[in-house]
Structure formats: structure tokens, C-alpha cells
Write a structure and sequence with these properties.
The protein contains 15 helices and 7 strands. It is an alpha/beta fold.
Length: about 375
């Protein structure tokens, strides 16, 4: 069995590490291969249903690939490294068997979303809209001769329509007031009809954007068919986790979008359970068997989560403590650290050399406490 390798750069022990080149001895190579298979499957299923995409009864195929794991398991690094490998796949030979269409797609126009920045006012569709507007504006400023007036006005018209639909949906109280206004008119019905078309209009906007941005970003033999959206730690935003999950489910399961997530599934499930408990608080209060209702809410949340992120599309990252791997050390960085002696770093290095394992967060906390107390420790 081949030993798998983890590389840790000095000063980036707790940050995201992007692999410039993914090789077979990489610790997460098997997970990268799984992601390639899932991406190929999504691409094929999306293309197979293109001719039915305007049919109301045909559901778009799920387009989400989730890297799942505990905190500190490396899921964010794996997601970003895979996206980097995907962007580079058409420029050089690599280890992965991407479809030719995937290799020829330009993935440079990607949307990176950090849910921890959400404030309850803006949503994921807002972020996608802002990216499209800014990306097109930058491309237009760079070379406006590649875009004719009709194309530009059409794109701006779709942006305005999506933004208007979003505004209507956000103003729920105003929508209700208008709906029950005795002096209702055709304009109000038209407004209600437009709001229900948000997903379709957003898909048209993304299509128009990809066609136009292809003129600037794509070299010969390339195309822009899909928009890549990467979402990191959706579950960490406890207050808005369910709302953001709903926005993804309702509006972003589109045939021209691919979504990557780095997520802790159990924590997102808790957020969905919390939302269900609030929605059914009156039922819970009047139910005599609390265990039965708790089990039902848990099952309901699990079914919702399975619909959003199918189990087959979840890539579970391995437990570092349960597998054998070798640690690649930057020797120059190690020598530099020796010149500036630090008790905690020295002890951690000794543990690493003796056990071949990376000390976990508990060891870090204990060592920090001991070092601050000036208590002497020996490691054998």
C-alpha cells in the first residue's frame, strides 16, 4: 500500500492550503478521484436533459458536490485545491480523467461564497448577481469592442428583472398586503407572476453572461458553458443556514451551474432541525410523546438534507488519526524556527517525530497551557 503524504507550509498550519499539483501520493487523492467521477456524472446528466429544461415537470439534475468532514479535517483545502486542478485541467496533462467537455470549459469565472459574511439582508442569489455584474463590468472595461450594444443591454435587462423579482420575494409583507387589496389590478398579478419566474430568469441571465464572457476569457478551443459556485462552511452560519440552503435548492439547481461545498453535514442537519422545531412549536407543545416528535423532526430534516445534497454526492474526508501517512517538512523553515526557540513548537515537533502523527487541537491547548505556566515536560 502506497504511503500518502501531507504537506504543511510554515505559517499555514491552520489555514487553507492549495495544492499546486495533485499527485498520487497526496493524502486526499482518492477523494479527488471521487470528485472527478461525480463531476463527470453531473455534466452528462445536465446535457442529457437540456432538451427538456423548459418543461415544468422535468426536474433539473442535482448539481452539488460536497466535501464533508469535521472541523480541521481539510475539507476547505481539498475543495479549493480541486477547483484549482479543475481550472488548470485544460492547460496541462494531469492525473484525472475529466470529460473532454469539462477540460475545454473555462472555469475562470467562478463565484466563491463565504456564508459567515451573511447578515440576514443579502442572500446567495445576491452574491451571484454581484459577481456577474462585476465580472462583466471588468471585462467590458478591458475591451468593450468585443460586446455589441444589444448584448450589453440584454444582459442589463435580465439583471434588472432578476433584481426586481428578488425584491418582490424579499418583501413578503408587502406582497400579502397587495394580494388582499380589494382594489387589486392586473399589474399586481403581473408582479406576482414575475416573482415565480425567478429561477428561470436567473438561468437565462447566467446563460447570457457565459456567452458574453466567453468572448474575453476563452482562448481558442475553449468555451464557457457552466458557472462554478463554491460555498465554504455553509453550516457555520447557524442563524441563516436553513435560509441559504433553501435559496440553493430553489434557485441554483440549474443546468448551467456546478456547486461545490465544504461542509460538516451533522451541523447543517442541526440547523435544519432547529428551523423545523420553530415551525412546528405549537405541534411540539401539544404532543405528549416528546421522543416521537423529536424522532419525526430528525427524520424530516434528514430527508430534506438528502434532497439537497444526495448521499452519493457527499465525499467524506478520512480521519487523519486512523490512517498512515508521512509528513513532509519544510527543512529551511524548521531551521529558521530553531533560531527563534519556542517551547511549544519544539515539543510539537518532538511529538511529530516520535509518533508520526500531527498533534490535534487538544494537545495544542495543553502545551500552550504548560508553556505559559513554565512547567517542564519531557517527550520520549
Amino acid at each position: 500500500m502506497q504511503m500518502r503524504k501531507i504537506s504543511i507550509l510554515d505559517g499555514q498550519n491552520f489555514g487553507i492550503h492549495v495544492e499546486e499539483e495533485i499527485k498520487e501520493d497526496n493524502f486526499f487523492f482518492h477523494e479527488y478521484e471521487m470528485a472527478v467521477r461525480h463531476l463527470n456524472e453531473i455534466w452528462k446528466s445536465q446535457n442529457a436533459l437540456k432538451k427538456y429544461q423548459d418543461d415544468f415537470w422535468i426536474e433539473n439534475p442535482n448539481n452539488i458536490i460536497a466535501f464533508c468532514g469535521e472541523r480541521g479535517s481539510g475539507k476547505s483545502s481539498v475543495m479549493v485545491s480541486f477547483i484549482h486542478a479543475l481550472c488548470e485541467s485544460g492547460k496541462r496533462d494531469d492525473q484525472f480523467q475529466f470529460l473532454d467537455e469539462i477540460r475545454s470549459n473555462n472555469w475562470g469565472s467562478k463565484v466563491l461564497i463565504d456564508p459567515s459574511m451573511f447578515d440576514g439582508v443579502h442572500n446567495i442569489v445576491d452574491i451571484v448577481m454581484a459577481h456577474i455584474f462585476q465580472s462583466f463590468s471588468d471585462a467590458y472595461q478591458e475591451d468593450n469592442q468585443k460586446f455589441n450594444q444589444y448584448e450589453r443591454e440584454y444582459l442589463y435587462k435580465l439583471m434588472a428583472k432578476v433584481y426586481k423579482n428578488l425584491s418582490i420575494i424579499k418583501s413578503k409583507e408587502k406582497m400579502l398586503d397587495d394580494e388582499y387589496d380589494e382594489e387589486g389590478n392586473i399589474a399586481k398579478l403581473q408582479k406576482l407572476g414575475e416573482s415565480t419566474q425567478l429561477k428561470k430568469t436567473l438561468g437565462e441571465l447566467i446563460n447570457a453572461y457565459l456567452e458574453m464572457i466567453s468572448k474575453v476569457k476563452c482562448r481558442q478551443g475553449q468555451k464557457c458553458e457552466k458557472l462554478l459556485i463554491a460555498i465554504d462552511d455553509l453550516d457555520l452560519c447557524n442563524e441563516h443556514a436553513y435560509e441559504m440552503a433553501e435559496q440553493i435548492r430553489k434557485y441554483l439547481i440549474l443546468p448551467n451551474v456546478i456547486i461545490f461545498m465544504a461542509i460538516k453535514i451533522d451541523q447543517l442537519k442541526l440547523g435544519i432541525e432547529e428551523k423545523n422545531r420553530k415551525d412546528f412549536k405549537n405541534v411540539i407543545a401539544g404532543h405528549l410523546n416528546s421522543e416521537t416528535i423529536a424522532s419525526e423532526i430528525s427524520d424530516m430534516s434528514q430527508r430534506y438534507l438528502t434532497k439537497l445534497i444526495p448521499v452519493a454526492r457527499r465525499i467524506s474526508l478520512p480521519n487523519l488519526n486512523a490512517m498512515d501517512f508521512c509528513l513532509e517538512i519544510d527543512e529551511e523553515a524548521e531551521n529558521r524556527n530553531l533560531n527563534n526557540f519556542n517551547a511549544e513548537k519544539t515539543i510539537l515537533k518532538m511529538i511529530r517525530e516520535k509518533t508520526g502523527r500531527i498533534p490535534d487541537e487538544t494537545i495544542h491547548c495543553i502545551l500552550e497551557m504548560y508553556c505559559q505556566s513554565s512547567i517542564y515536560m519531557t517527550v520520549k
